[in-house]
Amino acid sequence: MNRRLLFTAALAFATTVIAFAAEAAAVKNIVIVHGALADGSGWRKATEILQKRGFNVSIVQEPITSLDDDVAATKRVLDLQDGPSLLVGHSYGGMVITEAGNNPNVAGLVYVAAFQPDKGESLLSLASSKPAGSMDIKETKDGKYLYLDPAAFAADFAADLPKAEADFLARSQVFASKQAFSAKSAEPAWRTKPSWSIVATEDRAINPDLEREMAKRAGSEVTEIKASHAVFASQAEKVADIIEKAARKAGE
Questions:
Q1: Secondary structure of the chain in the HEC alphabet?
Q2: Whether the Cβ atoms of residue 108 and residue 250 lie closer than 8 Å to each other
Q3: Do β-strands 145-148 and 176-177 pair in parallel, antiparallel, or remain unpaired?
Q4: Cα angle, residue 189 at apex, residues 60 and 95 outer, rounded to 5°
Q5: CA within 20 to 30 Å of 217's CA: 122, 159, 187, 223, which one?
Q6: What residue spans define the domains of the chain?
Q7: CA distance 247 to 138
Q8: Is the Cβ–Cβ distance between 205 and 115 less than 8 Å?
Q9: Which residues lie below 8 Å from residue 125, measured CB to CB, with a gap of 6+?
Q10: Per-residue pLDDT tens for 124-169?
Q11: How far is it, in rounded angstroms, from Cα 94 to Cα 101?
Q12: Residue 51: how many CB atoms within 10 A of its CB?
């Protein structure tokens, strides 16, 4: 074999190895944790977009009975994945992924209009530090759970969604236990793993300035989108674009 053939063969081998390494490093699993006062159904559009782009998407239907229960539910879904995963959390889901993200198979975190706590902080302590618009949240008769009045859901949570979609989200919402909202976060995964944050600039559930401050503290890459708290549904393609970008970068 002459030098030219040797060089060509070596180049082809090197190209194959590089391509294989890039493929092996790619994060193909997306695990989504929905927020409180919602459920996973609102993520359908974003999920379908990501699936068409070659991602394996799973949605955690956490019970919101306690932060520990929700972290455990997320870990069970992570355990089903083959290879590294990107964890995505909306709203209260940010509390969950901050702790569940310490799982060794998690390559990165995406916060979508979400709480991004440090150790010892709770959803209530963060939300009260910089209040947003007044939400019509009510208690169940037993006083243990909270829900958003369906009549106020569209204005408070999903002002930029068509009425029929907002009505469905209101009807499918998962009630949140007070215990979940008052639980203190453990060591945050964003200290050791890359993170991205989407700030919904028209958010009435979480003050957009609080979203910015939490993201800055965590060193997250920030994208601002003009949208309500339901940005994951009203701007599904933009949210999917950011998740895809994060998955690519987390796999580098």
A1: CCHHHHHHHHHHHHHHHHHHHHHHHCCCEEEEECCCCCCHHHHHHHHHHHHHCCCEEEEECCCCCCHHHHHHHHHHHHCCCCCCEEEEEECCHHHHHHHHCCCCCEEEEEEECCCCCCCCCCHHHHHHHCCCCCCCEEECCCCCEEEECHHHHHHHHCCCCCHHHHHHHHHHCCCEEHHHHHCCCCCCHHHCCCEEEEEECCCCCCCHHHHHHHHHHHCCEEEEECCCCCHHHHCHHHHHHHHHHHHHHHCC
A2: yes
A3: antiparallel
A4: 50
A5: 159
A6: 23-250
A7: 37
A8: no
A9: none
A10: 999 999 988 778 999 999 999 999 999 999 999 999 999 999 999 9
A11: 10
A12: 13
How sure is the predictor about 212, in pLDDT bands with cuts at 50, 70 and 90?
very high
Distance of CA 105 to the CA centre of its chain: 16
Tokens at 214, concatenated: 């939490």
Cα distance between residue 64 and residue 86, in whole Å = 21
Question: What architecture is the 23-250 domain classified under in CATH?
Answer: 3-Layer(aba) Sandwich (3.40)
Sorted by sequence, the CB contacts under 8 Å of residue 162 that are 6+ apart come out as: none
What's the CA gap between 77 and 85, in Å, rounded? Answer: 10
- What integer best gives the mean pLDDT of the chain? 91
Residue listed under structure tokens 């030219």: 4
- Give the separation between CA 94 and CA 219, rounded to whole angstroms: 15
Question: What is residue 15's predicted lDDT score, i.e. its pLDDT?
Answer: 40
